[in-house]
């Protein structure tokens, strides 16, 4: 069932970025870089909304009126579900809750590995799902290349099922807080 995800074609296409409750300034800085913004714009995306969590890196806001990407950000929200539902593309940290919620919604996903974390078993989960063509994996340094070369039509739907309880159990077992 390839071809589930198509490139953006309508006027307002949002990319939603989430770092969850973590500190992941490398991801925030990466998506705020001109290189990543240019690649997103070339792909037809018009808006970039960044949930920056506990980080200190403040993204550059822009209205997008000059033809550039419109950028906005916030730290936390009681629920990011509405943002995820309205996104055309989601870029996320490797939290199992964020990954499985995005896959459940059927949204194209780029998982960005936080290389500063020791023993990050969540990255292993993301790599397995990438091998199965359910998502793309990147690092903050390779995110722009992943956006440039990603073929959204190559992604396969994740089999339905309620994965969040399993993901939270895995996180608890591995010593990570549930999402």
UniProtKB/TrEMBL annotation:
InterPro entries: Glyco_trans_28_C, UDP-GlcNAc_transferase
Domain Glycosyl transferase family 28 C-terminal: 14-159
Protein name: Glycosyl transferase family 28 C-terminal domain-containing protein
Signal sequence residues: none
Species annotation: Platanthera guangdongensis
Coiled-coil residues: none
């Amino acid at each position: 069932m390839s071809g589930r995800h198509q490139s953006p074609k309508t006027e307002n296409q949002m990319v939603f970025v989430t770092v969850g409750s973590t500190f992941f300034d490398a991801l925030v800085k990466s998506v705020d870089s001109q290189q990543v913004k240019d690649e997103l714009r070339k792909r037809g995306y018009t808006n970039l909304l960044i949930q920056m969590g506990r980080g200190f890196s403040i993204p550059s806001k822009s209205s997008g009126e000059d033809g550039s990407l419109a950028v906005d950000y916030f730290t936390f929200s009681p629920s990011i579900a509405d943002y995820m539902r309205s996104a055309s593309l989601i870029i996320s940290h490797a939290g199992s809750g964020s990954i499985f919620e995005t896959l459940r919604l059927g949204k194209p996903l780029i998982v960005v590995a936080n290389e500063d974390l020791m023993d990050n078993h969540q990255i292993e989960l993301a790599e397995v799902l990438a091998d199965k063509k359910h998502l793309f994996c990147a690092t903050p340094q390779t995110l722009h290349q992943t956006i440039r070369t990603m073929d959204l039509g190559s992604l396969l739907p994740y089999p339905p099922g309620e994965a969040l309880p399993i993901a939270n159990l895995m996180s608890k077992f591995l010593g990570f807080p549930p999402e």
